[in-house]
Amino acid sequence: MLRRLVIIKRVLGDAIGHFNYDDGWALASHLALSALLALFPFLIFATSLASFLGADAFAETAVHLIFDTWPEEIAAPIAREVSSVLTIQRGDFLTIGILAAAFFASNGIEALRVGLNRAYRVLDRRSIFFLRAQSLAFVLVATIGFLVVSSLLVVLPVAIGIAQQRLPWIEPYIGTINLWRILIAAVIIVLALIAVHLWLPAGKRRFREIVPGLIFTLVFWVVGSSLFATYLSYYSTYASTYAGLASIMIALVFLYIVSAIFILGGELNASIKRYLDARAKVAQ
């Protein structure tokens, strides 16, 4: 038991120490701002593609999928602004403006890459053209994934209704469409975390090597967002301090918390690998 505590202390000390030493807090700030700046271009690009393909229900579904995993106190103000932007009719896919939106959306992916490269302590020597193409591919895959989920959520209520008529005994196990949205959003987050940890930073990692960081990120995302939401409910002075900018400031602080947790997840994976590598050398 004592040995395990020593190991945990060593690994956590290495992860947190490197996070502080390597400007982790500044990186979290950069990642939070980049994520917020990339959010609107990504949704504009995705909505334009959806309109081009005839998926008119995409905007509402995308807002739910992104913000249903945020605490309501944080998500509600900015979700309204996003909805108002996305309700503008767009049929101008493949114009310069929409392609620029895709490019700016990929900046958010690049910020994730920088954070993970620093967390995993690797130097990325890949071509800048490859890196940007990969980021744009992430944006396109995310858009297509949202389109597929959007189509499924349109069909899902019909399928549930038919299932309830044919098999009444399954009704207690089905739940509501909101529950399905939350579950699907949670699955999307997990898959996205796996993808960015495996493929964005330089070097190669096996799935089992990224699991501790994934669990850490998911658990502390829930804990951190819940604590911040509680603070907003009881002690918030954002509305009086920032007036009309309150919703943006709340979103920035929330994304800053999530970004710090995300980078620490990568730091934890790197620290565990460093410890295991050191132990293997000693054994040899």
TrEMBL record:
The chain crosses the membrane at residues 31-53, 93-116, 136-160, 180-202, 214-236, 242-264. The keyword Transmembrane helix applies. It is a multi-pass membrane protein. It is found in: Cell membrane. Keywords: Cell membrane, Membrane, Transmembrane, Transmembrane helix. Its main location: membrane. This is YihY/virulence factor BrkB family protein. It comes from Neoaquamicrobium sediminum.
